[in-house]
Amino acid sequence: MASTRLKYLSLGVLVFQTTSLVLTMRYSRTLQADGPRYLASSAVVVAEVMKIFTCVLLVFKEHSYSWRALNSILRQEIAHKPIEMLKLAIPSGIYTLQNKLLYVALSNLDAATYQVTYQLKILTTALFSVSMLGRRLGVYQWLSLLILMAGVAFVQWPSESVAVPEKEALSTGSQFVGAAAVLVACCSSGFAGVYFEKILKESKQSVWVRNIQLGMFGLVFGLFGMMAYDGERVKESGMFQGYNTVTWTVVALQALGGLVLMEQNKESHR
Questions:
Q1: Rounded to whole angstroms, what are the CA distances from 167 to 112, 161, 170, 172, 252?
Q2: Phi and psi for 149 in degrees, rounded to 5?
Q3: DSSP secondary structure code for residue 157 in this structure
Q4: Tens digits of per-residue pLDDT, 23-61?
Q5: Sign (positive/negative) of CA torsion 11, 98, 55, 49?
Q6: For residue 266, what is the enclosing H or E element?
Q7: Which range among 83-97, 112-126, 159-173 shows the weakest confidence by mean pLDDT?
Q8: CA pair distance 201, 77, nearest whole angstrom
Q9: For the purposes of burial, counting CB atoms within 10 Å of the CB of 180, is it exposed (0-12), middle (13-18) or buried (19 or more)?
Q10: Torsion of CA 104, 145, 196, 262, to 10 degrees
Q11: Rounded to whole angstroms, how far apart are CA atoms 83 and 176?
Q12: What is the phi/psi pair of residue 238, to 5°?
């Protein structure tokens, strides 16, 4: 009974986090403020740091707040198992790319179009689950996926009706960039999620430890991407240029969302 309540609580938190993240991220990317706008690559890096720090605290709690146990677990799983660590480099790199693409998408699409289109990740996850995990889907499940595809297609269908001011401000080119970013993010999300689930099924280690390993690669990839694409701006104005309360809220929601997803995966493997 307690496990069921926890699952529903996790679902509710996930719905709240997803909706809040989309709205606040869109607002943060269109907010007119004095000074430069914050760097999306920087926000991705900070979110990874927050996830790693939070997961370390959760592992610390799991081992009865023992520093010795925490040090032993981290040393054993990170320093002594390089092959296991390298397995997580693939989904970590994909997740880092996906997070960057979401900022690109919400900078070029209105929140409603983004939210509906991004639900295609349900379809990609199902397809990768069938191909990589050998799962079987029933007729009603395939029918639901087809209805989802049709709904997304209708959302993207051109309309001659009077557009709202936000959509008028978006050019055809920017909408194409945003839609392409969402579609790539959906594919990467489906593959990375199923790949990570496959690793979890083959491992007996805590999901929080795996998330720390995932976050470490994500931090490396994120730093590399930030310096490659925004290195000059970082050197000129610093990594935290343009940060405000809204930016920190976006980063916190993004980090929280990753942990809620990990908790759902944890519950599904019990």
A1: 11, 12, 5, 10, 28
A2: -60, -45
A3: S
A4: 888 888 887 777 788 999 999 999 999 999 999 998 898
A5: negative
A6: helix 245-268
A7: 159-173
A8: 16
A9: middle
A10: 80
A11: 40
A12: 90, 160
Residues near 238 by beta carbon (within 8 Å), at least 6 away in sequence: none
Token pair of 53, please? 């720090």
Q: Are 216 and 78 in contact (CB under 8 A)?
A: yes
Maximum CA extent, the chain: 65
**Burial track 28-54 (b if 16+ CB lie within 10 A, e otherwise):** bbeeeeeeeebbbbbbbbbbbebbbeb
The residue among 113, 146, 261 whose CA lies nearest residue 194 is: 261
Q: Decide which of 141 and 162 is more confident.
A: 141
Tokens 């520093």, residue? Answer: 67
Look up residue 38 and give its DSSP letter. P
| pLDDT tens digits along 169-194 | 455 567 888 889 999 999 998 898 88
- Average pLDDT score over the chain: 81
Find out whether 265 and 195 touch, Cβ atoms under 8 Å: no
Q: Give exposure, 128-157, as e/b (b: 16+ Cβ within 10 Å).
A: bbeeeeeeeeeeeeeeebeebeeebeeeee
